[in-house]
From TrEMBL:
InterPro entries: AT5G49610-like_b-prop, F-box-like_dom_sf, F-box_dom, TPR-like_helical_dom_sf, TPR_rpt
Transmembrane segments: none
Protein name per the record: F-box domain-containing protein
Coiled-coil zones: 629-690
Keyword Kinase assigned: no
Gene: LOC100826997
Amino acid sequence: MAARRGFDSPPALPEELLEEIFLLLPPDDPARLLRASYVCKPWNRAASSRGFRRRLHERHGAPPLLGFLHNSGDPRFVSTTASPFPLPAPDRRSWRALDCRHGRALFISVADEEARVLLVWEPVTGYHQRVPAPPAALSSDFSNAAVLCAADGCDHRGCHGGPFRVVFVCFDEELLDTFAYLYSSETGTWGEPAILSGTTFDLNQPSVLLGKSLLYFVSECASIIEYDLARHRLDLFDSPLDFEVVLDYDRLVFMLSEMGGLGAAVARDSRLILWSREPEDDADVPWVQSRVIDLAKLLPIGDLVTESSETSPKVMGFADGANTVFVGTVAGLFTIELHSQRVRKVHEDSEFSSLIPVVDFYSPCCTLGPPGSKDHGLPLSNASEGKWKEDKTLGQARELVDKGSKAIKEGNFVDAADCLSHALEIRTAHYGQLAPECASTYYKYGCALLHKARQHKADDAAFPLSNVPVSARVEQSMKNTTSKDDTGTQRPPVGTMKISPSSGKGLNSNVKDQEYETGDSKDDDNVGDSDLDLAWKMLNFARVIVEKSPNDNAMEKFKILFALADVSMGRGDFDNSLGYYFKALAILEHVVEADHPGIARLNFRICLCLAFESVSKLADAIPYCAKAISLCESRKQRLENAMKALLADEGDNASAAEGCSGKFAIEYEMEFLTDSLAKLVETLEVLERAMSTPSSATEGRVA
């Protein structure tokens, strides 16, 4: 009997035929393609090739919604497809998700805020690139960013690995300005910032891209910031909620309208309300309520009935390209496709922070191993697993800093100081007391203590920086303030700062005591444990660290000096306060425009410091108040001219307006300047009245 013949392996299918088969798989169920790619290397190569990804776009058109990134917990990526599939994302212990667009996701490092880095990551290919954050990222607690393709004429069907741009937007609490920086991967540099003056809010939700060059960010008070990439210009305008108080359950989310303009969505009771703002030439574009969707007809009625409006449905996000909104209810998270109104429940939980949709065609990267393997080519963490405990501790410090910053914003300065004190204790123990990584924590802790002291003394007219109206404070100072020669109650200036465990909470007791020069002053044997004394010490730690740094950090120095000046004035140390104010002014004059409101503010602070110090200094104080008025008037006039040029929008006027903020931003700043001028003029009148009647001022002071 003839021997049984063995079976030969079937011939390998041509790669072109494999691609044709894979194209038949539904793109909104990428788990099928992922399983097929694990069969063998030839199948993996076919499923992961650049040509196949382009053919996916050509065959199916609009990419599907794959899921979303978030910053609330693990897993970092939540799949919303028919069959869940893994997509390893950067570790939330080290990275915070900011944006996702054109096949790229953007993250910012969180473990080390003194050396922040942005991470551009392609979820499909695994490609990633680190980008040093702009200097403003180190000192701002209120920031956002966006990533987008930079290739001219790109249809975004195969732009993975191509050039990109990053827009970083942040708010400066001291200058009350919003800055926008633009990064190019082709040059590897950040450009000069565009500035929007007079804004007083922070940024918290993912941006929306309209066309090729207009990015929109929403603030917590639902104001809208527009960044024009083509003109490198910021603008500000109202949201459809018209600046009304927007609570968390009344969350406004940006989207693209059906006509291609800017849209917005908010859930109220059981209704999903949509607005649109279609672009028009030479006109103020109004918001129009374009559509109302009855959620009771789409979602189970039990998912909408709640005992509190705070747990009623709310819009969590919008998936650009998929025309889908995320709606959170007490029963979980749902997606609603706006055109078909198809609804899917995608998660049991609805409490996600910074929900960032991922819209793209998925194809496995050829370097990927099976789920759970480490061969992903992705920086899941800034540190190895061996340093997990160390990273966890630093992560706790970062959470404490975030919590403390939020508490300052909410006016809860006691909790803020407590959180920042513990964060400082962790960081100084890890890095050392004078490490650059601790500078911003010293600064924030010092500011929290300053705010706490102001709050405690808000009703005390003798405290120069209380919340009493300016004119009343100046008049009261005419009665209560004495010169250095009249009393011995003024606190002597501080000459050296001894770094020791007793200097305040959060200092490392294992570090050897050292002394550093902190000013032109002498000994300070009278420093106690008051909030102002401790704030002064913490801010001086920050100043010493920053001044020793080789980096160009002018704004950090300015903020620290400004805070030191405020603390010194609160302690009655007017000489040092003036010195710090003048140093801060010298820095600011080299950073911003000559008529920037921050310069006017500093001149006014110098005026107050002189007026509070002594009646004999009133003559010195008046010119600084007059200078602040002159700067505000000059800037207001310039803004009025810019507004006329924008409205005319023709000939030389149009070119004169180029580079200025848009008319909404101008109107906002002009209103701010008008209010400021009224207070400045009122203060100047008080000072001049005191100068004209010195005897009455002296009698009041003696009394």
